[in-house]
Specification:
The complex is a heterodimer of chains A (108) and B (114).
Chain A lengths: L3 E3 L4 E4 L4 E7 L6 E7 L6 E5 L5 E3 L2 E6 L4 E6 L8 E9 L2 E4 L3 E6 L1
Parallel strand pairs in A: 2-11
Antiparallel strand pairs in A: 1-3, 3-8, 4-5, 4-9, 6-7, 7-8, 9-10, 9-11
Chain B lengths: L3 E4 L2 E4 L5 E7 L5 E7 L6 E6 L6 E2 L10 E5 L2 E6 L8 E8 L7 E2 L3 E5 L1
Parallel strand pairs in B: 2-11
Antiparallel strand pairs in B: 1-3, 3-8, 4-5, 4-9, 5-6, 7-8, 9-10, 9-11
Classes of the chains: A mainly beta (108), B mainly beta (114).
């Protein structure tokens, strides 16, 4: 079983839609969680950290469910510029595990 | 976050040659990593660059093919040796601090082999 698993998508949504991605992780002792965004042919960029209490940054909300071992990313009021691949990252004892990414296409 | 400069940004190389990629950070960082990402694929960790000692390689990657240096806490190089078409990829360096801090990536090096 992979350490981190994501639905590769693509998720095709219209502008203004709300879309959510989940990412499951296998090690219950995982300590830290992040969402990254990667545009085509660019490097991954940190989008937001994921805290136990959940956190929000504008249109983006990240949540952690330790009981079910998944993290989620919710994007409200999708923009064309949100089109990208979203990677989840889990850290276990200083070792980083990247998901393979979920592709989002926001269409006009 | 740290500013990471990766050079070259792209290169086209002949088979059998080698390419050295540099990663310079504007501040001291605890951890430096080298990744490969082939088109449409996920990131694959090549190795963790250790300051003052040999890098720690992941399964499937060996020092002879991917020698890595890290002479100090702000600089590392990755050499891709004896290039073949299968080495065409994007190579990325990343850095992070202590205590489960997130990684931050350089812009990447796009390598094509003729």
């Amino acid at each position: 079983r992979k350490e981190v698993e994501q639905d590769p998508g693509p998720f095709n949504v219209p502008e203004g839609a709300t879309v959510a991605f989940n990412c499951t992780y296998s090690n219950s002792a995982s300590q830290s969680f992040f969402w990254y965004r990667q545009d085509c042919r660019k490097e991954p960029k940190l989008l937001m950290s994921v805290y136990s209490s959940g956190n929000e940054d504008g249109r983006f909300t990240a949540q952690l469910n330790r009981a079910s071992q998944y993290i989620s990313l919710l994007i409200r009021d999708s923009k064309l510029s949100d089109s990208a691949t979203y990677l989840c990252v889990v850290i276990n004892f200083n070792k980083f595990y990247f998901g393979s990414g979920t592709k989002l296409n926001v269409k006009p | 976050s740290a500013v990471i400069s990766q050079k070259p940004s792209r290169d086209i190389c002949q088979r059998g040659t080698s390419l050295t990629i540099q990663c310079q950070v504007d501040s001291q960082v605890t951890m430096m990593f080298w990744y490969r990402q082939q088109p449409g694929q996920s990131l694959t960790l090549i190795a963790t660059a250790n300051q003052g000692s040999e890098a720690t390689y992941e399964s499937g990657f060996v020092i002879d093919k991917f020698p890595i240096s890290r002479p100090n806490l702000t600089f590392s190089t990755l050499t891709v040796s004896n290039l073949s078409p299968e080495d065409s990829s994007i190579y990325l360096c990343s850095v992070s601090g202590e205590g489960n801090q997130p990684q931050h990536f350089g812009d990447g090096t796009r390598l094509s082999i003729l």
